[in-house]
Amino acid sequence: MERKNIVISPEKIKEQYEYMDKVKALLADRMQETHYAYVETFGCQQNEADSERIMGMLVRMGYVQTYDPALADIIIVNTCAVREHAELRALSITGQFKHLKEKKKHLIIGVGGCMVSQEHRKEDIKNKYPYINFLFGTSMNWRFPEILYNCMIKQKRQYYLDCGDIGNIAEGLPVKRESSFKAWVSIMYGCNNFCTYCVVPYVRGRERSRDKNEVLAEIKELSDSGCREITLLGQNVNSYGKDFEESYDFADLLDDICKIEGNFIVRFMTSHPKDASHKLIDTMAKNPKIAKAFHLPLQSGSDRILSEMNRHYDRETYLGLVNYMREKMPDIAITTDIIVGFPGESEEDFEGTLDMLEKVGYDNIYSFIYSKRKGTKAAVMASQIPEKVKKERFARMLEKQNAISNGKNNIYLGTVQKVLVEGRSKTNPDKLTGRNEKNRLVHFTGDDSLIGNFANIKITEAETFSLSGELIK
Ligand code: SAH
Ligand code: SF4
């Protein structure tokens, strides 16, 4: 792969800065003191990271961020296409913004993200949502200033949807992060795996890794500014570097990140089991900066379904990985993603999944009812599972996992946990709340000055979904 064709040239990035200045000038010409921008985000952490970049550009253009769409002069909806439910929610919210536009004629509404990169959804929006000003696919995010500028001066609907086969990497654009002490850092984009149920490779393009020096520089900057938790993002972080000429993989990157000075921990997601190496696990085990938490999507516990899903591993290799992880890091927290009701899933296949929940003993699972995605192989597979059966299996699976998760918290009783304090608890503002490296919620009494830093908490109570404890001075 020719990397120089993938990384957007500095000249082209500079052009986008010029567009930002042009939008700024247009805003300055208006008889309005403050221009507000609102971004609504659906879907995964990658989308959250993309939204932070879009907000970064908006702020650079002179907008002020708002969390109230009614105040906004520009609204961007960053959509997800992984399941139908997420698409319908994005469409419904976009529909609700129509009345804001009726009240405020100059309101600009743009829709981006994975959903709009699909031809049929583009047509839907084109026909049913005439008040939307522009659509832009994820590979066009870096051209957002240009798109917005054109929308402002041309007064007609703009489409920037070319998802492209390769995709691209844009460096040096502004970012406005939601948190000052937790940050997403994308290390790669796209996916080459084509799991048969998944739309991501179609809407995010091919795998491409960011230059390691760009990643390391971003993390150094974050660490210098007091960031305490860095989550590395990619659809399959384990294939980081496969597109480099030099031999440099995800484990090497983690090793180099851990050499950066600072009081921070590193997380990463997501790891495809077919590429999770012993080298990666060894690297985790020896580096205290890497959180001892591993998200390893299983998807199904049936070898037959795994093969139909095009996952390239089986139960045995998966369990082998889990055993190796626990050998090296006995207290590691393991979480997973499961799909229930993939086409052709028999009762026996499903029981295989339940069996894996027990064999692995996950700390937590993220489970999904299979959702048919247009254009994917599984969408046209025979024997789609009836909704009723999918829902019934889904409920059985949750029941099983709840029984496994129950009690997992008890092991923390009496221990001292290093917790990154995130803020006041939403359910009980008297308490502060944070997470330990295993991502467990911990509540305790303390002062606001602790927010954004690590605190040592002695665990005194364990509930099903959280822990409570006392601050140790
Ligand atoms: N790249 C990541 C996941 C991206 S999508 C990985 O491979 O793990 C996040 C999760 O959504 C997937 O792990 C899968 O469990 C779920 N998912 C993806 N497509 C789906 C579909 N069509 N129906 C239901 N769940 C789906
Ligand atoms: Fe989708 Fe599979 Fe790629 Fe994950 S690895 S994004 S599930 S195709």
What is the CA–CA distance across the termini? 54 Å
Q: Which molecules are bound in this entry?
A: S-adenosyl-L-homocysteine, iron/sulfur cluster
Structural class: alpha/beta
How do the strands of the widest beta sheet line up side by side?
2-1-3-4-5-6
- The rounded Rg comes to 23 Å
- Stretches where pLDDT falls below 50 for ≥5 residues? none
Q: Note the beta-strand portion.
A: 15-25%
Number of strands: 19
What's the rounded overall pLDDT mean?
A: 94
Query: What overall geometry do the principal axes of the alpha carbons give?
Result: globular
How much helix, percentage-wise, in residues? 25-40%
Largest β-sheet summary: 6 strands, parallel
> Count the helices. How many?
14
Report what the structure shows.
The protein has 473 residues and is α/β, with parallel strands linked by helices. It has 14 helices and 19 strands. It has helices at 10-28, 45-60, 84-96, 98-103, 119-128, 144-154, 200-204, 212-224, 250-258, 278-286, 303-308, 315-328, 347-360, 387-405, and strands at 36-41, 64-65, 74-79, 108-113, 134-136, 158-160, 182-186, 188-189, 208-209, 229-233, 265-269, 293-295, 333-340, 364-369, 416-424, 432-436, 441-444, 454-462, 466-471. Helix 1 packs across helix 6 (144-154), helix 9 (250-258) packs parallel to helix 10 and helix 13 runs parallel beside helix 14. It is globular, with a radius of gyration of 23 Å. The structure holds S-adenosyl-L-homocysteine and iron/sulfur cluster (SF4). Iron/sulfur cluster binds at residues 191, 193-195, 198, 200-201, 235-236, 272.
